[in-house]
Structures are given as C-alpha cells and as structure tokens.
Design brief:
There is one protein chain. This protein is of the alpha/beta class. 49% of the residues lie in helices and 13% in strands. It has 2 domains: 192 residues, NAD(P)-binding Rossmann-like Domain (Rossmann fold); 150 residues, N-(1-d-carboxylethyl)-l-norvaline Dehydrogenase, domain 2. It is globular and about 65 Å long. Keywords: NAD, Oxidoreductase. It comes from Nephromyces sp. MMRI.
C-alpha cells in the first residue's frame, strides 16, 4: 500500500531507531515538522538505549528535561519527541521507520524488530546509517538492502554534508534522499525538510548510501594528512583521489548509479565536510600523532564520548572486497589507508604511493563523461527562447 493511501487510516506514525547525537538531531527536526503537519502523528517515538546518568535513567531525563544530556547536551528537544527504552513499543503501529544507528548494530536491531511480528504492513523505512557490509560472495551490501531484506519493506536513504552539532544549532545545510518511488520521496521530504535543512531527492538509493559510507574512509586518509601536518594542497589531492575511488567503487560494484548523486550533498559536499570537521578525520589525526601507540578503540573512548567511528569498520570491509577481487591497482588510496590503519605501515606511505616519477596517463575524450543539461532546465530555456 502507498504511504499516501495509508493516510485514510489517520496521520502517519513515526519511529526513530537510534538516539546518538545524529539520531537526536534528526528526532528534533522531524518532531518539529510532525507537530505542524496533518500528515504525521505529532508524537514521535525515539528508541533510546537505556543508560543511567547521575542515578537517573536517560529516557527519563530526555522526557523530563527535553535534552539528551549525554549525546546532544545543550540542545533543546521538542516535547513531542518521546524517548522510549523499548524497541517494541517504539515501532508499534509505526508507518515510518527512521534508522539512525551505528551500522554494526543494524542487523541485530532489524532481526529483533522482525521477531516482534507487529510491524505495520504498510510501513516504509529510511536509512541514515553510514557503512556497508560484505556478503558471502565478498560483495558489498548496503544498510537499506539489509533493512529491506530482513523486514520486507521498502527502504530509502538519506545522507549529506551534515555534521550533527551544526545541524543541531540550525546552521544551514542540505541533505540528499535516495528513493525508489516518488510518492515515498515526497513524504520523506515533507518529514525532514526545514528552512535550515533542505532536502534534495535523487532516484538512486545505492549511490546516496555508498557515498555516505566511503566518505568516512576518505576522511581517515585526510586525517592522516592532518596528523602529518601536511598542507591544504596535499590534503586536497588526497581527497580528490579518494573521491575518484569512491566513484569507481560505486559504478563497478553497483548498478544504476547516477552521476548527479556525486554532485549532490550526499557526494562531494559530504566528503568535504567530513574531511574537515567529522569525527573520523579528527580521530585519524590523533592516531598518527600517537604514532600507532593507541588503538582505535582507545581513541574512540577519549574523543567520542560513547559514539562510534564508522570509517575504520568501513575501511576493513572495503579492504576485504578489494583483496578478494584483486582490485589493488584501482583503489591505491583505499588500500594504503587500510595498511596504515591496521597493518602498521608508516603514515608517510600515504603520500609516497602517489609521488612517483612516471607520468600519469592523459585522459582521452572517450575516457570522460559528457555533462548534460537537466531536462527540466533544458525545457525551461527552450520555452523562454521560443518567446523571443
């Protein structure tokens, strides 16, 4: 059943699965929108992994003070965002499921939801999860695919240049929704879009998600540059190489990837902001400053206050795929990033990999992708010129 048809039974009920800093920010945005729209039930339930802080349960703190003091301190949350410690109660009767979890917890959470056997038959999901998985054939599987397969529901994806603390402060930014059906995209856009958080849409779920996953691997490499105290020229070159490998990884291993996705917020914009202000770049720089004497787990504990790195796990998964399919020559930056992160290679090898005497191959016209004018803009220009 289409989501719009579900409205005949009443406003759409919303469940947010995950309550870290990004989950809390997203919960804030959609609770505000739900309150102002007849389409959505005004009460938004957010699943909170129960913790005790200063002798009080975190869910009680959130519901009483309307602040997630552990993961999003100092930001006021709407009263209609209801923290719920039970995953079953959170998703009960929900039409819209928003997954905002560290990707290592997604499969277990989906299997738990499946076991409840109460999921609304017309439910739709959207993944804000960053990461990928490796299947039995050593091919990548994306969070939306896992959600769809386990729960047997349609799953879209949202990703973009969205550092959580800046979005929480309502600083202007954009995000991209990758969708399967336009009806679903329109519902998701109405749920997420605000004047400070503008939503674009592309019919490319895989492209949006793979950009969101691999930009964190690029951020590790960018962080290594920071740890080595290299300049902006070098860091820009590493980011460019990383983004080219991201693009190649996408088109080699997935069908139907759109070039437009790379130029939306989910693509180059997210890569830029993650490489200059995200948790992965900061922790990678510290990893180099400690000269490998502190593990990634130790760095997480010191710098992330309970949050999890996604870049290191994704880097390991990407390496499995590169190794199994012998793709080292195509992905030299991803390969060296893994070796520095996990095999004790000196960080200087990141740059030495590309400082070679041989001339690079010059691209021919056949190697390049021609730019095209979007049909809606082409039509608009043609109509305008026809009146002259």
């Amino acid at each position: 059943m289409a989501l719009l048809e579900s409205l005949s039974s009443g406003p759409l009920k919303i469940a947010v699965i995950g309550s870290g800093n990004w989950g809390s920010v997203i919960g804030k945005i959609i609770a505000i929108n739900a309150k102002m729209s007849y389409i959505f039930d005004e009460n938004v339930h957010i699943w909170v992994y129960e913790e005790t802080i200063n002798g009080q349960k975190l869910t009680e703190i959130i519901n009483e003070t309307h602040e997630n003091i552990k993961y999003l301190p100092g930001i006021q949350l709407p009263p209609n965002l209801i923290a719920t410690p039970s995953l079953k109660d959170t998703i009960k009767n929900a039409n819209l499921l928003i997954f905002v979890l560290p990707h290592q917890f997604l499969k277990t959470s989906c299997e738990t939801i499946k076991s409840f056997n109460i999921l609304n038959k017309d439910a739709k999901a959207i993944s804000l999860v960053k990461g990928l998985y490796v299947d039995s054939n050593f091919l990548p599987k994306l969070p939306s695919q896992m959600i769809s397969e386990i729960l047997e529901i349609e799953c879209s994806a949202l990703s973009g240049a969205n550092v959580a603390k800046d979005v929480a402060k309502e600083q202007f930014c954009e995000a991209t929704i990758g969708y399967h059906t336009k009806d679903s995209a329109l519902i998701w856009q109405q749920l997420f879009d605000t004047p400070f958080f503008k939503i674009n849409g592309v019919p490319d779920v895989s492209g949006v998600e793979i950009c969101g996953a691999l930009k964190n691997v690029i951020a590790l490499a960018a962080g290594f540059c920071d740890g080595l105290e290299l300049g902006s020229n070098t860091k820009a070159a590493i980011i460019r190489q990383g983004f080219e490998e991201l693009r190649l990884f996408s088109v080699i291993l997935f069908d139907g990837i759109l070039e437009d996705t790379f130029f939306d917020s989910s693509g180059i914009a997210d890569t830029i902001t993650t490489c200059f202000g995200g948790r992965n770049v900061k922790c990678a720089a510290e990893f180099i400053r400690y000269n490998g004497k502190k593990s990634w787990d130790e760095i997480e504990k010191v710098f992330l206050n309970g949050q999890k790195l996604q870049g290191t796990l994704t880097c390991e998964d990407v390496n499995k795929i590169i190794q199994m399919h012998n793709l080292y020559n195509i992905f030299p930056l991803f390969d060296m990033t893994y070796k520095i992160a996990f095999e004790s290679y000196p960080a200087s090898e990141l740059i030495n990999t590309f400082k070679i005497k041989q001339l690079r191959r010059i691209k021919t016209f056949e190697d390049c992708t021609s730019s095209t004018l979007p049909s809606i803009l082409k039509q608009s220009i043609w109509q305008k010129n026809s009146k002259i």
